[in-house]
Structures are given as structure tokens and as C-alpha cells.
Amino acid sequence: MPRTTDFTDSQLLEMIRDGDVAAFKLLYLRYFSALCKSGFRKIQDDKVVEEIVQDIFVDLWRKRQELEAGQEIGAFLNALLRNKILHEWRAQQIRQRHVEMFSQLNTTVGDESVSEQFYANEIQERLNAAICNLSPQCRQAFELSRYEHLSYREISERMAISVKTVEKHIGKALKILKLELREYHITVAMLISIWLQM
């Protein structure tokens, strides 16, 4: 394998745009440590920083054909690093707010079930608000499934639409609701579980 000093950034960029895996590995070796050091100055967690930098290179490879010729790759990678660190900061702040809120509830009331119920109520309120914002047909299909427990076939007959359209509406609803509840780290499986319990 060639050394990292055998090519300029511009040459590596051109090869990466053409799908050259070896060039990508050279760029990775050239910038990985420097990006980790830069990230660690902002987030003092080696594991988190390394995961962020790994994600940056994954994104770079996936979007390699969108890279512009002559682009300053070092500046581009550092910009991606800053954006991902900002996202991680926001996620940490949200998690910390939840921890502090539950801690205060437990200290005041001394009952973990209270904080759990508070959290569940908050999620349910967000879920209900998100359902209200769905498009009329999407919302109707979702509510017939959720409230009346109708099958897709029964919903299609009630709404005079195809079963495939029902599947599309409910799939879209779940996708939107998951997006609305992303700060709670709700997966589709968890969302369905919450939905069935309501």
C-alpha cells in the first residue's frame, strides 16, 4: 500500500470520487488522529470522539461523488467534525436535563415510579401532538389502527382505499412520530410498544 505522503489531498480526493478504496484508506490514516485530537479538546471522551470521527469518514465515503474537485478536504473534515460535536453536545444536554429532572423528582418525592410516570406522560403528550399534525388520511388510518384495532383490510374498506395505501399511511405515521420523538431515543419498536399501551 502506498504511503500517506505519496499523494496530495487533491489527488486523493480525485481518486476517492472515483471510488478508490486505497486512496480513502490513505486519507483516513492522514487525518484520523488529528481529528480525534481536535475532537477530544471539546469532548473529553475518547470513545465518543472516535465514534464521531468514524462517522465522519463513513459519511465522506457515502457522499464521495458529491465532493467538489479541488475542495480543501482538511477544512471539509473539520467542518463535519464541528457539526457532529455540536449535535453530540445537544444530545448530551437533553439527556442531562432528563437526568436532573428525574433526580429532583426522586429527591422530593422519593419514589422512582413518579419520575418514570412523568417521563411517560411527557412522551405521550408529544406523541398525541404529533398525531394531531399528521395529514387527515394518514391520521385517520393510524387512529383506526390504534384506537379501534382494525386490520389493514378493515381500514381499507372503511376508508375506501387499497390495503397498500393503508400500509403506506401507517408506515409514514410511524416514521413521522419516531422523528418527532427522536430526542427521547424512541425506536420504531418502542414506539409501537407505547402505542399499544395507550
From TrEMBL:
Q: Which residues form the RNA polymerase sigma factor 70 region 4 type domain?
A: 125-176
- Give yes or no: UniProt keyword Transcription regulation: yes
User: Where do transmembrane segments lie in this chain?
Assistant: none
Q: What UniProt keywords apply to this chain's record, in alphabetical order?
A: Sigma factor, Transcription, Transcription regulation
Q: Does the keyword Transcription apply?
A: yes
Recorded hits in Gene3D superfamilies, A to Z, give: 1.10.1740.10, Winged helix-like DNA-binding domain superfamily/Winged helix DNA-binding domain
Q: Which GO terms describe its biological process?
A: DNA-templated transcription initiation
The Gene Ontology terms for molecular function here are: DNA binding; sigma factor activity
> Which Pfam families did the record assign?
Sigma70_r2, Sigma70_r4_2
Query: Residue ranges of the RNA polymerase sigma-70 region domain?
Result: 29-93
| Family of the protein in this entry | Belongs to the sigma-70 factor family. ECF subfamily.
UniProt protein name: RNA polymerase sigma-70 factor, ECF subfamily
